[in-house]
Design brief:
4 copies of one chain form a homotetramer. With 295 residues, chain A is of the alpha/beta class. The first copy, chain A, is built from 10 helices and 12 strands. The termini of chain A are far apart. β2 of chain A pairs antiparallel with β2 of chain B.
């Protein structure tokens, strides 16, 4: 192999004993925003990758697995999609997926890091694919927490793409009673709150289970689902929360009709994929059934 | 971190541009058998790992994901489980799973590398968990190909745990018409031939699709299913082939009854997991629908 | 350690079995010139580093070891330093060292890659330290080979900082009889031709020995010397060739006087260091004494 | 490259930002003695390597650079070589070098880790090359500190191959006034105390300088010398201490005569190499001239 193409590597450290290395073909950007270290690189297998504070955020090759999973089960489950709120989601791909449904009349996105939004527009245009220019998009650079507190609107779906509450994460304060109250107040009747909810791998599913336990005290239906996202080198989990809809139990006919109403072609999600996402293996169901502490 | 515990690493190279590194806590064995390079190590996340020719074969922490998936859908689908044949499967875990059903009266396993079998008994006893000593087990050290040709028995399930037909693999000649004929001749009426069938990741699903295309010319039902196996760092695919049973369409009640008849506790597989395994995402269904060459 | 600072690594591959990894703190530039792949990064131990085609060219922390060694033994050995010619040397540090002697009236430098010169001015200003702006410097962007052929000047010292003639290197044609003739024609009476001459490590000294053998057929005195350059992870060798001066045998008094006439402070070289450079260990002398093929 | 030969790597971590990786061809031993973690591996470039607590101790390919440098300058400097004492030196190569002089009538070696001695005999026989069986060798498994305190002999040379006093090292208490007193008491008149004395690389020479400062308070002549040892990826330093002999100033004729009296062939050391070892570059002389704290 030509020595020249292997000189620079992105090393993701999952633990002191587990590393994943990707040879870097090109570095588009590497620097610091006001909030975090950000890099945009390109690798052979994953194409362009967004890396924040040393963690893969999404890759060109498989970001649709993550973003279709985050958005569509929730949107398929609700009747009134006119107002959708996204917390985080700086790359614009969550926004893109939401706006594929014409009945989404406005999609509000609140992300604290305007520089990540700008970098994504510049280097990751495939992610947003024009969504930032859609007249239905309302992109707010600001603190999602403050926004929730001051906002007076209600939303059929609130989609949280925020960092999970890791022990040392700046998103940790975003996962507490006050915020849950604010989110619930903004959820329209019949609405669904869906969030990325950490990992579901056999070796790191405890945080997901704790998040699920916490939210089960606040919603009638709290459903775990997950997909293997290769760029994350992990099974990634989500939670769909609602007092009225059991997202795990959506009829295939309903999903088929929903998917038929999406503009453009899907890569990952439809009724069959929905069944995969919500059918959990024994070890994960056992973990979710455990009692334990909550946030 | 203590320097001393990080000095030795197992580096799995998926491509010249993608590596996964595991810190080695202990090396139990590293050497060459008559057929291949074999190592048994221990890592923090995966426990003991069996490595052959630089590829992870299975890990203590998640081998049940792989082996339950390989064995149980096929066994759940057939009515007569009295005779089961395993091709390969040196660690003994495929054997272990088959023998969990009391109605398996004999399970014959043919593996060419007796040294791997011996090493597995010595270092990976958790994998076979006594199966090698079960009076119903018949373990033959020999060439699976020759065995199939000379054998006169028939089997309700033939479970192939052989290496997939990679371009440069010694298992390549195992995937051809003559072998397919031999396997079909050994399959009892109503039987299922199930095989590990390469990877189903978005970036490396072509070989699986080619294997599926090949077998669709020989069986009425050829069903793909897959599970993410973390130690493989990949979605691992399987094919269930039969002229009589559509393994993808098994009723949950049938699976429940089958699972209830298994000795010991399962880690991964039951009726809900079965739905996950066989519900494929769009991108994989598209790949499987493509026309192309066959073996 | 903060995960964020370790995400990007420069991996230098010395052989398929030997790698050296440096965590990258910042990437100033990574791209392709008309001739080669070039990167400028910063690491904790070595400061800024220039990397060409995956090989370390020089580091801020120890480039003076390399450049003082390349320039000063030759300049100390000659009487007339008014004209000096540098082949290659794009970073400008060879130029800088030559110009530290006021009796160097003109220093001509010929480097084929004007983009490397421009990048060095922009990002590696510490290397040239103003030398490019010295009125005595004459910097020519062009082919050193063609320059030697057409030039009519003579030089007290010709300093070659070109790539060694590795089997697959573009510098390979630079190391042949026609070029040796051209160089000798440009060397003033009493002059010294000095060149970087590959590595002198116990495991990779054959190329150096072959270069020495080749030049011994053309000069009365051909002296090997070497220094360990940590950023190269190797002992780096040089050859001083002359028909009149034995550079290895310079009197300490002569070197003292020479060094006293240098502007600014030296980091590495003086009479004591000169003794170190030219005193070779047994294994290297044995290699140099071997007969063998020449270029 | 064949995947199978690259699966296992020895990663030496010089700092959180600098790693050197060696592909392991074979692991002869990896385990824990009563004192330390020990491994014996083989790599392509360095042959067999001894690794203790994650640090390279010596390699088959270049251990003679280290051991000839440790032993011969001191032995060349003294007149009475009849009694030599080695502190540490478990591999037996220091012993081997000392016993190459027939006028060494007894060489006593004290190493605390008998298991390292036994492993070296079994796996690293090239290092000791029969020295353990030499009737002049007296190998004591025990605490060098206690031995020095209780011993009543005197030695023309005391050769310390103990770990340098790193902040967190178990050898730290070995470097203190009480021990210096004990060593001096055991040194015969005209004797030399020589010790490996940490690294002399531009980025890690402070500890060596502090060791030198400390010993300058106790001996009339304290001379630094160093060699680049590729397997250590560093310039390795030593100190030769004596109240009567300036080891740096040995006449070449004396060294020639000494070397002529060595059995077998040397790889690295003779009078020319001696000049290299003791001729220090400016940056190291500057560091050694600094005032500062002592042990």
């Amino acid at each position: 192999m030509p020595k020249t193409e292997q000189w620079q590597w992105y090393v993701e450290r999952f633990s002191p004993a587990e590393l994943h290395q990707h040879a870097i073909e090109e570095t588009y950007f590497a620097g610091r925003t006001a909030f975090q270290n950000v890099a945009v690189i390109r690798t052979a297998t994953f194409g362009k990758m967004l890396i924040i504070d040393g963690d893969t955020q999404s890759s060109q090759a498989d970001e649709r697995i993550y973003h279709e999973t985050l958005v569509h089960p929730a949107l398929a489950a609700i009747d009134d999609r006119s107002e959708v709120l996204i917390l985080g989601g700086g790359e614009g791909a969550t926004l893109r997926e939401a706006l594929r449904r014409p009945d989404v009349r406005r999609c509000t996105m609140v992300d604290i890091d305007g520089e990540v939004v700008a970098l994504s527009k510049r280097y990751l245009a495939e992610w947003s694919d024009g969504a930032f220019d859609d007249p239905r998009a309302s992109v707010i650079v600001g603190d999602a927490l403050a926004y929730l507190k001051e906002d007076r609107g209600t939303y059929g779906a609130i989609v949280s793409d925020l960092t999970e509450p890791l022990a040392d994460s700046p998103s940790n304060p975003l996962f507490c009673d006050a915020v849950f109250d604010d989110i619930k107040r903004r959820l329209a009747p019949g609405g669904v709150y869906v969030l990325q909810a950490s990992t579901a791998g056999f070796h790191n599913m405890e945080l997901h289970a704790k998040m699920a336990r916490t939210l089960r005290g606040r919603y009638r239906f709290v459903r775990s689902f997950y997909a293997h996202v290769p760029a994350f080198d992990n099974d990634w989990a989500f939670l769909a929360c609602s007092d009225t809809v059991d997202v795990a139990a959506l009829a295939s006919e309903r999903i088929d009709a929903y998917v038929a109403g999406l503009r453009g072609e899907s890569y990952f999600y439809d009724a069959e994929t929905h069944r995969r996402l919500f059918a959990l293996p024994i070890y994960l169901r056992r973990e979710l059934a455990k009692e334990g502490d909550v946030f």
